[in-house]
Amino acid sequence: MTQPYLSISQVAMQFPARGGGLSTVLTDVDLAIEKGQFISIIGHSGCGKSTLLNIVAGLLTCMSGGILLENKEVNAPGPDRAVVFQNHSLLPWLTVYENVRLAVDKVFSGQKSKTERDEWTRHNLALVNMTHALDKRPHEISGGMKQRVGIARALAMEPKVLLMDEPFGALDALTRAQLQDTVMDIHQRLGNTVMMITHDVDEAVLLSDRIVMMTNGPSATIGEVLTVDLPRRRDRLKLADDPAYHKSRAAVLSFLYERHRHPATAA
Ligand SMILES: Nc1ncnc2c1ncn2[C@@H]1O[C@H](COP(=O)(O)OP(=O)(O)OP(=O)(O)O)[C@@H](O)[C@H]1O
Ligand SMILES: [Mg+2]
């Protein structure tokens, strides 16, 4: 049997509880992801989505189970898994160009010449339409632009897997739509393997090949996985009239608001 590209097997995670002892956040999390797939993870606040993403990133170590990427165990952060967080984590004293170049130098200093690293930095900033602001510092650009730079920096590392934790969560609806289109376009062109956390059902359906729906914590796990069978390229305006789009959307909404309602909002 061929191994999946990225496999999450029997992952369990506990954190120290307030009153002593341990509280189980995740249990029995199993997921196999094929190369080039775009996976979204959706679930109510606090169920453990970021915890799972951080385990895949190697920023947290799970208590049992494990992660395999191309058959190699993941147990530390590495450039093969680039992370984009909700709150852009750019270095404020560096320009847009320098923020990306720093990552490029770190990953490719032995492999690419200086000129090639310069071109690669510019190329990735062009992918996210940021060529006009190469010399600006983070405080001089908008939130959406910072997020573009964060995505360019992650892509420039040529990671095997792109991990995104609510990458568009802090943005207004129009900027969010623009960035979703940019990410869709890049995924279509480069075929990256992506794992993205979102709270936005429309975003999940628009972008994903599969939507992983998590049950509520404590002891959260994967409840259902929905395959989104919409052909690519997807066009948000055309999808508005597509029954298959509405069916996928309804399936996620029903999971989140009927079958696995957040305890705080359950009647
Ligand atoms: N370092 C930690 N120590 C103790 N508990 C933690 C730690 N990190 C997370 N938790 C707990 O684990 C649970 C899951 O947290 P996590 O951040 O993964 O949730 P989430 O699904 O990403 O939520 P949100 O949608 O609000 O971002 C929460 O109850 C949280 O309080
Ligand atoms: Mg989170």
TrEMBL record:
<keyword id="KW-0813">Transport</keyword>
<protein>
    <submittedName>
        <fullName>ABC transporter ATP-binding protein</fullName>
    </submittedName>
</protein>
<dbReference type="GO" id="GO:0005524">
    <property type="term" value="F:ATP binding"/>
</dbReference>
<dbReference type="InterPro" id="IPR027417">
    <property type="entry name" value="P-loop_NTPase"/>
</dbReference>
<keyword id="KW-0067">ATP-binding</keyword>
<feature type="domain" description="ABC transporter">
    <location>
        <begin position="6"/>
        <end position="241"/>
    </location>
</feature>
<keyword id="KW-0547">Nucleotide-binding</keyword>
<dbReference type="InterPro" id="IPR017871">
    <property type="entry name" value="ABC_transporter-like_CS"/>
</dbReference>
<dbReference type="Pfam" id="PF00005">
    <property type="entry name" value="ABC_tran"/>
</dbReference>
<keyword id="KW-0472">Membrane</keyword>
<keyword id="KW-1003">Cell membrane</keyword>
<dbReference type="InterPro" id="IPR005890">
    <property type="entry name" value="NO3_transporter_ATP-bd-like"/>
</dbReference>
<dbReference type="InterPro" id="IPR003439">
    <property type="entry name" value="ABC_transporter-like_ATP-bd"/>
</dbReference>
<dbReference type="InterPro" id="IPR003593">
    <property type="entry name" value="AAA+_ATPase"/>
</dbReference>
<dbReference type="InterPro" id="IPR050166">
    <property type="entry name" value="ABC_transporter_ATP-bind"/>
</dbReference>
<comment type="similarity">
    <text>Belongs to the ABC transporter superfamily.</text>
</comment>
